[in-house]
Write a structure and sequence with these properties.
The protein is of the alpha+beta class. It has three domains: 9-100, Acyl-CoA dehydrogenase/oxidase, N-terminal domain (Butyryl-Coa Dehydrogenase, subunit A, domain 1, Orthogonal Bundle), CATH 1.10.540; 133-244, Beta Barrel (Butyryl-CoA Dehydrogenase, subunit A, domain 2), CATH 2.40.110; 248-405, Butyryl-CoA Dehydrogenase, subunit A, domain 3. It contains twelve helices and ten strands. The strands form three sheets. Strands 1-4-5-8 form a four-stranded mixed β-sheet. A four-stranded antiparallel β-sheet has the order 2-3-7-6, with no helix packed on it. A hairpin with a 2-residue loop joins strand 2 and strand 3 (160-171). Helix 1 runs antiparallel to helix 2 (42-58) and helix 5 runs antiparallel to helix 7.
Length: 411
């Protein structure tokens, strides 16, 4: 079994071009307002990032995750990993290349599940970058990690569905032109049934879709909306993927999307490690540089080892997706491990920087605030641990070995 993550020359060239574009064009352009809360002018902010999107398209660095026939770069998931990690060196990088969540996952979903008419109306504007979208599944009244418990419900009324319910943490809702809304349509289905939910395409704004507030989080109010849905009417033709397929559609969307998050988190972890080492090499205390002190060396070593593991896990999981193999266990493992490693590595970087790291004079404080959500976004740690354990036990029962649940590797 050959495992070779060496990039083909043409893909190595793409990585070089992405890195150059991000480092030499994007980062200098947004350095004064990379945090939207500190932007001098909203108009200047919008104008700058739209200009950068135009430059990305002109450079051929647009839609790295989409097939070439749909205007994308046609990269596999292994190649996408290096693009996402380079782009995520700045918060705005993935958005400028039009490969940021939630639009990225919604593009995949529409491409796979949408009718020709739905692709024309909803997918193409996303690909062109002229519209934005959101994915409305999570609810305050039930556990977000168990979408079979969703209470938002849709009742058929002639050729329409009448939808009522409550959603929150719906990222991008206030900027979205449409939502992929998950609602229960099979009201008599028993609790836990996976065929009870249906996905609807909802044009925004629309009567019955009430954006109550942006939920303020540890890193401020950044577009995670609470939505109350009251007698929202949606035509039957707006069902995406067929009635009762909402759960399957959601899982299809979330699998690769989890790995894309990991690709971006690796970039942030690497940035934190770079900053940690740079600080250790330039800070003198108690007779020597921090880099010469064993306690600091251990922080660096632990971070380097974890980052190495993160990269290998993501690349291996990506290779399984590219080969059409079952990737669920590997993606769950990667999502859990990378999210936790990101938190630990950024925390260590803050520690090495001392009070400076706790301040907002470096990006570490904001990175740490953003990192914390990684441990429950797209499935909490404990849910992934449960699924990993279930699949490990199932593998042993089926074969007498747990090898298939630990990557199926030849050792």
């Amino acid at each position: 079994m050959a495992i070779d993550f060496t990039l083909a020359p043409e893909h190595e060239e793409i990585r070089r071009r992405v890195r150059t574009f991000i480092q030499e064009t994007v980062i200098p352009a947004v350095k004064d307002f990379d945090d939207e809360g500190r932007v001098t002018s909203r108009e200047e902010y919008i104008r700058t990032i739209l200009e950068l999107r135009g430059k990305a398209q002109a450079e051929g660095l647009w839609l790295p995750h989409m097939p070439k026939e749909w205007g994308g770069m046609g990269l596999g998931h292994v190649e996408l990993a290096m693009v996402q990690s380079e782009a995520a060196k700045t918060r705005l990088g993935p958005w400028i290349l039009n490969c940021a969540a939630p639009d990225e996952g919604n593009m995949h979903t529409l491409l796979h599940w949408g009718t020709d008419e739905q692709k024309e109306k909803y997918l193409k504007p996303l690909l062109k970058g002229v519209k934005m979208s959101c994915f409305a599944m999570t609810e305050p009244e039930v556990a977000g990690s168990d979408p079979t418990l969703i209470r938002t419900h849709a009742v058929k009324d002639g050729d329409e569905w009448v939808i009522n319910g409550h959603k929150w943490f719906i990222s991008n809702a206030r900027r979205a032109s449409f939502a992929i809304l998950i609602a229960k349509t099979e009201l008599d289905a028993p609790e836990g049934a996976r065929g009870a939910n249906t996905a609807f395409l909802v044009d925004l704004p629309q009567e019955g879709w009430n954006d109550v507030r942006e939920v303020e989080t540890m890193h401020g109010s950044t577009g995670h909306s609470e939505i109350v849905i009251t007698d929202l009417r949606v035509p039957d033709s707006q069902i995406l993927g067929g009635r009762g397929n909402g759960h399957r559609l959601g899982q299809y969307r979330l699998g690769p999307a989890r790995l894309a998050h990991c690709m971006r988190w690796i970039s942030q972890a690497e940035t934190a490690l770079d900053m940690m080492v740079d600080r250790a090499l330039n800070r003198y205390s108690h007779g020597s540089l921090l880099a010469e002190k064993q306690g600091v060396q251990w922080l660096i070593a632990d971070s380097a080892m974890e980052l190495y593991q993160c990269k290998l896990m993501v690349l291996h999981a990506a290779s399984k997706i590219d080969k059409g193999e079952d990737f669920r266990t590997e993606v769950s493992m990667a999502k859990h491990f990378v999210a936790n490693s990101l938190n630990r590595i950024v925390d260590r970087a803050i520690q090495v920087h001392g009070a400076l790291g706790y301040s907002t004079d470096t990006p570490l404080a904001h990175m740490f605030q953003h990192a914390r959500w990684a441990r429950f976004a797209d499935g909490a740690d404990e849910i992934h641990q449960m699924r990993i354990a279930e699949r490990t036990i199932a593998a042993y029962r089926a074969t007498g070995s747990t090898n298939a649940a630990t990557g199926g590797l030849p050792l």
